[in-house]
Structures are given as structure tokens and as C-alpha cells.
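Hi R.,

Here's the chain you asked about this morning:
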Amino acid sequence: MTASARNYLRDRFREDADALNARALALEGGALPAGPDAATSRRMAAACTDVVTLLETIPDALEAIVSLLPPLEHRAALETISSPVRAVYLGAATRIREIALAETRAARSDGDDGSNQTYAGLDT
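And here is the predicted structure, written out as C-alpha cells:
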């Protein structure tokens, strides 16, 4: 998979929101999978959607993506009710740092601008 950093992050958090909403529906329907309850899953999904919205409001440039670190960390600091929701915001910040590092390394190694960087290795 080759994607821009912004599109990779946007798609990843959109998929996470979808999975968390599906989990909440399953829990509300009586299923009992391990993990957070339905309300927490919905709050986590909303946080993922918030990350997607932030990503959609910026240009597709590494500097713009990195500029999201302070707002994400601020949202995490404000989240006093749910540490899983805080983890969504801190996880997004971590992913941005990983992508910035990967793009910097790619640019140094071959002069590439990182626009065709593959981020599949970050999904672990």
C-alpha cells in the first residue's frame, strides 16, 4: 500500500471509528466480546472521527500533519473521563511522530520527498 501520510492516517482512524461503532452495536445487541463497554467504544469512535476531521482540514503535507501534535495532545490532556479516549488522541500523536520519522529517514536515504512512502509497517 502506498499512500500519503495524511491519507494513511485518515483512513486508519476512519477504520478504527467504524470498528469501534460496530463493537458498540454488538455489545448493545447482547454480545459480550472482551474489551471496552459500548459507551466507551462509542466515545473512542467519536475521538477517532475527531482525528479524521482534523486530518481533513489540513493540507497533505508533513508540516501540516506535524502541526496537529499540539491539538491532539491538548485533547488528550482534557480527557479526564476516559483513559481509552485519551489513548486515541495520544495514539494519533504517536502515529504522526512515527510517520514524520519514517519520512525523514526516507528522504535522507534516497532524496525522496516521502510522497510515496509506505506506512503498512506502522499498523502493528
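One quick note: The chain has one domain: 5-108.

Cheers,
M.
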